[in-house]
Amino acid sequence: MNLPQSVSSPSHGAADAVQVRSQGERMQPSHSPVPGYRPPLAERIGLALRQSLILAGLASIVLPIVWMAITAFKLPRDVYSLDAALVFSPTLENFRTVFAHPWNLGNKIANSILVAAGTVVVAVPMATLAAYAFSRFDFRFRQTLFLLVIASQFIPAAVVVLPYFLMFRDLGLLDTRTALVLINLSIVLPYAVWMIKGFIDAVPVEIEESAMIDGAGRFRVLAGIVVPAALPGIITAAVFSFTLTWNEFLFALILGKQDALTLPLGIVGFRTERGDLWELMAAGGLIITAPMFMLSLMVHRQFIGSLTAGSVR
Fold first, then answer.
1. Which of 192, 220, 230, 244 lies 20 to 30 Å (CA to CA) from residue 254?
2. pLDDT score of 33
3. How far is 263 from 256, CA to CA, in rounded Å?
4. Within the chain, what is the greatest distance between any pair of CA atoms?
């Protein structure tokens, strides 16, 4: 007697069950823990050490920032009091003080913004053109010149500043923002060229050749194809240039006297004859850190958007 089609034989049912069970076992990750399994003592100690190192590194980064943010809102008497380490009456007096006479931190903030922005405006187009030349053109001593550009990053700033000081003194540019922009270019340009070149190298040359066959000129190809495709690298180079110039201290110390003092020098001024004014230093440090933090958040979104646009272009 034949069985109905909808009813399977017991042997077939057992085989199907075994097949389903074997497929389920293959789908399970091989590293799934066995119930009741306890890792060896050495593995547990290694895991605890790794977690401790991560927490220690995180604390070394976060705790100074937290201390600075808390101290910026403390009165002078609370800065040196252990009882007011965490519980205190917050105040904005420190921020009003740093902008008043004799500190005048507002002028130094303006100098830092103008110098950093001027450095980025000049450095990014120059670095983009230089990176495109190193990436696309085959000229004599190309590799040697590129290595010299990269090697210039390792020249100490103290070595660079002396000849610039003598030159700016003869040109009457000491204690000017122009002098700070020019000397900062010597530091940020090599890194910007190196970073942007890496992104331009990733752009297929065939796209440029197709555009030039259609009649596009070299600068049109650069502006319409290469720059949009390498925009993440250009943005990163611009942020690096701005951050490095914003935090720069040595050049402003040697080339500036009164009119071209920047924000880092303004914070050093809080070391007085009565000691370090920690509450004012913390307020100034918060003023320096907050714009960089906000800029990083803004650039992060734009950087991700540039990567997405490049992937579907």
1. 192
2. 56
3. 12
4. 113
Given a contact cutoff of 8 angstroms between Cβ atoms, the answer to whether 177 and 114 are in contact is: yes
Q: Say whether 31 sits in a helix, a strand or coil.
A: coil
Q: Can you give the pTM of this predicted structure?
A: 0.76
pLDDT for residue 34: 62
Instruction: Kindly tell me the sign of the dihedral angle through the C-alpha atoms of 296, 299, 304, 310.
Output: negative
What span, in angstroms and rounded, lies between the C-alpha atoms of 287 and 244? 16
Q: Any idea which residue has 């993440």 for tokens? A: 232
Whether the Cβ atoms of residue 192 and residue 123 lie closer than 8 Å to each other: yes
Distances from the Cα of 3 to the Cα of 6, 7, 11, 264, angstroms: 8, 7, 13, 90
Please list, in sequence order, all residues whose beta carbon lies within 8 angstroms of the beta carbon of residue 225, skipping any fewer than 6 positions away: 203, 207, 208, 211
Q: In sequence order, which ranges of 137-249 are alpha helices (DSSP H)? A: 142-151, 157-171, 177-201, 205-213, 218-221, 227-229, 231-246
Fold of 97-312: MetI-like fold (1.10.3720)
Domain boundaries, the chain: 41-94, 97-312
ω into 232 cis (within 30 of 0)? no
Instruction: Give the tens place of pLDDT for each residue, 196-254.
Output: 998 899 888 898 888 888 888 888 998 898 999 888 889 888 988 999 999 999 999 99
SS3 state of residue 272:
strand
